[in-house]
Amino acid sequence: MTRRFSGPLEQRLARLVLAVLLLVGSAAQGAQAGGSSGDFDYYVLALSWSPTYCARQGRNAEPLQCQASKPHRFIVHGLWPQYERGWPDFCRTRNDRPSRHTVSEILDIMPSRGLVSHQWRKHGTCSGLDPEAYFDTIRAAYDKIRIPAAFRTLERTGRIAPDGVEKAFRLANPGLGDAAMAVTCSKGALQEVKICLTKDLEFRSCRAVDRSGCRASKISVSPPLRR
Question: What is the DSSP letter of 2?
Fold first, then answer.
């Protein structure tokens, strides 16, 4: 005999199905592959906390990033063109791939040749810039941000609220508002700080990015591993 579910259990199952459908719909409104190069509203500068990546990846970590003589702290994950809702990626462009010289010049802040190439293909192609200009823009965006002293000198693992990370960045960067960035986390550890910038690299609010921040009450922040 087939048992039929009714009452509270049936309602919970219905809510679960609805949540899945909403999640799928949200994902569909995100990346829009093949967008028009140069047609976007603003940038997101994603700064990754390198010690989290290196600790998680272990032997599989990028050597250039995780075995450097001077350990990395915040590195550039990417500079991503965004729409007010969603974002373009893998845009059609007539521009060539980055030259070896262009790649080598950016490795001090993006310490992985694979990362550099991938970021160009996925995001740089949507910027409307050629590779050299795109990575020059990444450099300019990175140089604009002042990393809070606590993260430049951290020597012991500590715990902090995501809002505390945002506050440190706001205090170090006049004009950077709390609705212009998001802190993300992975398995209870600091992962990235995402900062929204205009095409002219001025701070701007970005509610969609701000809402994507870490919901944990506290996250751990570990110093670079010493080799």
Answer: P
The number of angstroms, rounded, from the C-alpha of 163 to the middle of its chain's C-alpha atoms is 17
Instruction: Give the burial string for 167-182 (b: 16+ CB within 10 Å, else e).
Output: ebbbebbeebeeebbb
121-171 residue pLDDT tens: 999 999 999 999 999 999 999 999 999 999 999 999 999 999 999 999 999
- Any idea what DSSP says for residue 169? H
Can you list the positions of beta strands (E) in the chain? 31-33, 42-49, 74-82, 87-89, 158-160, 181-186, 189-197, 219-221
Q: What's the angle, vertex CA 85, arms to CA 83 and CA 88, rounded to 5?
A: 45
Tokens 């002293």 found at = 149
| Helices 113-122 & 131-144 angle (0-180, nearest 10) | 110
Note the pTM of the prediction, 2 decimals.
Answer: 0.85
* Residues 21, 61: Cα–Cα separation, whole Å: 35
**Confidence band, pLDDT 50/70/90 cuts, at residue 5:** very low
CB atoms within 10 A of CB 67: 13
- Strand pairing report for 87-89 and 31-33: parallel
Structure-derived torsion over alpha carbons of residues 54, 57, 59, 62, reported in degrees to the nearest 10:
-60
Q: Other C-beta atoms within 10 Å of 1: how many?
A: 3
- Which amino acid does the sequence have at 175? G
Report how far Cα 129 is from the mean position of its chain's Cα atoms. 20
